[in-house]
Amino acid sequence: MSNRDRLEKAVGRLRRERAAFLSRFESLTQTQLDFRPSRNAWSVGQIAHHVALGETVWQGYMKSVLARGDREHGAVERVSLKQIPFRSRFFPDFVFKSPLVVTPMSVLVNMLPRPFQSMLFAVPLFKMDASERMQPASGLPRAQVFGLLEEVRKRTLDMVEPRADWNLGRFKVSHPLVGDQDIYGVLDLLASHEQRHSLQIESIRKKPGFPGSADKPGAV
Description:
Structural class: mainly alpha
CATH topology: Four Helix Bundle (Hemerythrin (Met), subunit A)
Shape: globular
Radius of gyration: 18 Å
Number of domains: 1
Number of helices: 8
CATH superfamily: dinb family like domain
Order of helices and strands: HHHEEHHHEHEEH
């Protein structure tokens, strides 16, 4: 498979998951977007904002590694424990982010084939909490939510599509939790992240008390 074909495959999945993700909430009203099943739970609008924030974090890693290397030799971007924008729901940070915990976890993840790595990101088997920089805002106008998603995705595509003929497998992000991911792998993780939160949105829409759709949604 050529470099261009590999990128087209990765971007193709990214587009499909985005379409599926948007289909879960693009017809919702502002009231529905703002509905929270409980005091500590996110609304659909917050989930969408979180997805945009998550993609922005990975954009930073990709931008750095692409700037560091050239198309012939590539480069590696190493993400430190302090940069991880998540924390465990069940263990204190000093335990969860300890090298004694993270190092064997990273080795294990790197041993898994990419489809299994992607599955771990897509299916919410492990409960994690977002750190402050990944915490979404509540009550964002629906037009702003959709605008942010579109803007962030455009930046991602503008970063990788001009390099379609590069071997982006030579540019790797070494992440303590998800292992070593080349650019194609990063795009796959972004798609899996949206798949994960599509399931979360579907669950929220089935919660008792979810508002009806009497009001038509505003223009996007």
